Automatic annotation (TrEMBL):
This is Circularly permuted ATP-grasp type 2 domain-containing protein. Residues 109-484 form the Circularly permuted ATP-grasp type domain. It comes from Gluconobacter albidus. SUPFAM superfamilies: Glutathione synthetase ATP-binding domain-like. Gene3D superfamilies: 3.30.1490.270, 3.40.50.11290. InterPro entries: ATP-dep_Glu-Cys_Ligase-2, CP_ATPgrasp_2, UCP005522.
Length: 508
């Protein structure tokens, strides 16, 4: 294994550019619904850019400008009604008044040029390669720990590190079969990785359904546009799961393993099983005999070879993890360890998307691949380290502070938007358990025109491309563009009031 000399001892990525859109030429006035649109300091995906506006974006902008606001609102209302009738919902457990909600959908798409997508595609593929090499290494030779590239305590003491995976060979050395990489753009328009999702990333169903909705309700906007298709995802996912089936299996049986109807992403489980044409199963539908997995059917037991599991490690097998779990399958982990079934994603991949490990990803890419990162990471301070904690405590009002194991926007503090009381309370949390937190600078996220109650306004967005890895890695052209619907909010997560947009990738 090549072990290139690292160029910097700093685990954090390159400090984000200080370029600002204040240095850019002013955006040209736009007509129609964009007449009052304003993006004073942010990079706008459609209206204000660092380069000359590509012709494809100009076409989208000009077509949108010709719409009437009342017509856009009518189509948006129609879209929301259709989404609800189709059952395209997610569950909010904390809301006692409404269990199932639709993800609010904005009819103004987010547009990426062919060159922008090519950059994202290469960067995501590079990152997935490094993640898989890292996971293989920490569960086998542990070169990366012995060479001091990342602290051993951060890996071996990580709550997501899975001892059951030590020494286990997985087909093709692929641990992360389905990956969601969260990207943002800073004030200069540069794409940056915000975090990795290497366990059970969700949201791809919205990518596909958003496109269906746009083509149905906005055909006059999409007509003639050279859009990359998102229709292949189900086929590619099934192909990936077949490619990583146990050795010697020529016609693998794939299933999607769901925790059940009360899971917040259950709609997506149903959707993806249908897209792949495979059974949707729960723990009660599977059984292990002689260290092999079978599915119960009306015709008897049927062998299962690849399982796309949508539940966390600790619930998979009561014999191996949580003995109180009623969701898992007794004996599943031992069948997996013996190579008789493939789990996607592999056990123990949560180490790779830990927010503290994230800080070392630039190092890991250079270490395993001998390449500089194509996509930069956000500068990250690890509060478990004295210097990181001291910096965070001294600059709380300027940082975003996140718990390392949380997702969905829960438990974080945006210092610039916090009250003094909130800062004081969070300071106490940091001092009590510093290893549970990292901090990052507040990035001026890019914005996209969004239909709001008072008209078309700028709202912050991010992007989650989805990558599938079997024999090769394929990235779905587009991804989930999430939008922070509340004015001024930087939190785009659906659980925190965010919505979504269709993501258009231009073919040329």
């Amino acid at each position: 294994m090549n072990k290139p000399v690292l160029q910097s001892p700093n685990p954090s990525a390159t400090t984000p550019s200080t370029n600002s859109l204040s240095a850019l030429p002013p955006a040209k006035a736009a007509a129609g619904i964009f007449a009052a649109y304003d993006t004073p300091v942010f990079f706008c995906e459609l209206m204000r850019r660092t380069d000359e506006m590509p012709s494809s974006l100009r076409t989208v902008r000009d077509r949108l400008a010709g719409f009437d606001l009342s017509e856009l609102r009518h189509r948006t209302s129609t879209a929301e009604t259709q989404l609800y009738r189709l059952g395209i919902t997610f569950t909010v457990y904390s809301d006692r008044e409404a269990i199932d909600r639709i993800l609010p959908f904005d009819m103004i798409p987010r547009v990426l040029t062919a060159s922008e997508w090519e950059h994202i595609d290469r960067g995501v593929q590079q990152r997935v390669r490094a993640l898989n090499l890292f996971l293989r290494d920490i569960y086998h030779e542990r070169h990366v720990l012995r060479d001091g590239i990342i602290p051993a305590s951060l890996v071996l003491g990580n709550p997501n590190y899975c001892e059951a995976m030590v020494g286990v060979r997985v087909p093709g050395d692929v641990y992360v079969h389905i990956n969601g990489t969260d990207l943002i753009r800073d004030s200069s328009g540069r794409f940056m990785v915000l975090e990795d999702n290497a366990r059970t990333p969700s949201g791809v169903s919205y990518v596909i359904e958003n496109r269906h909705m746009m083509l149905r309700l906005m055909p006059d906007l999409a007509s003639g546009m050279p859009l990359r298709s998102v229709e292949e995802y189900g086929l590619k996912l099934h192909q990936t799961l077949c490619e990583v089936a146990p050795e010697g299996v020529t016609d693998p049986q794939v299933v999607l393993f769901s925790p059940g109807i009360y899971n917040s992403a259950y709609f997506e489980h149903v959707f993806l099983a249908r897209e792949m044409g495979v059974p949707l199963v729960e723990g009660r539908d599977l059984i292990v005999e002689n260290h092999r997995v079978y599915m119960r059917t009306v015709a008897g037991l049927r062998p299962v070879h690849s399982i796309y599991r949508r539940l966390n490690d600790e619930y998979l097998d009561p014999l191996a993890f949580n003995p109180d779990s009623m969701l898992g399958v007794p004996g599943l982990v031992e069948a997996y360890r013996r190579g008789n079934v493939t789990l996607a994603n592999a056990l123990g991949t949560g180490v790779a998307d830990d927010k503290a490990v994230y800080a070392y990803m630039p190092r890991l890419i250079r270490y395993y691949l001998g390449e500089d990162p194509i996509l930069d990471s956000v500068q990250t301070h690890i509060c478990a380290e004295p210097e990181g904690l001291a910096y965070t405590l001294a600059n709380m009002d300027k940082l975003v502070i996140k718990p390392v194991g949380e997702s969905g926007g829960y438990g974080l503090l945006i210092g610039s938007q916090a009250t003094q009381t909130e800062l004081d309370e969070f300071r106490a949390k940091l001092l009590e358990d510093p290893s549970n937190y990292i901090s990052q600078p507040v990035i001026d996220l890019s914005v996209s025109p969004t239909l709001c109650p008072s008209g078309v306004e700028a709202r912050h967005v991010d992007l989650r491309p989805f990558a599938l890895t079997g024999k090769n890695t394929w990235v779905l052209p587009g991804g989930l563009s999430r939008v922070a619907l509340r004015k001024g909010s930087l939190v785009v997560n659906s659980s925190q009031g965010g919505g979504s947009k269709d993501t258009w990738v231009m073919a040329r």
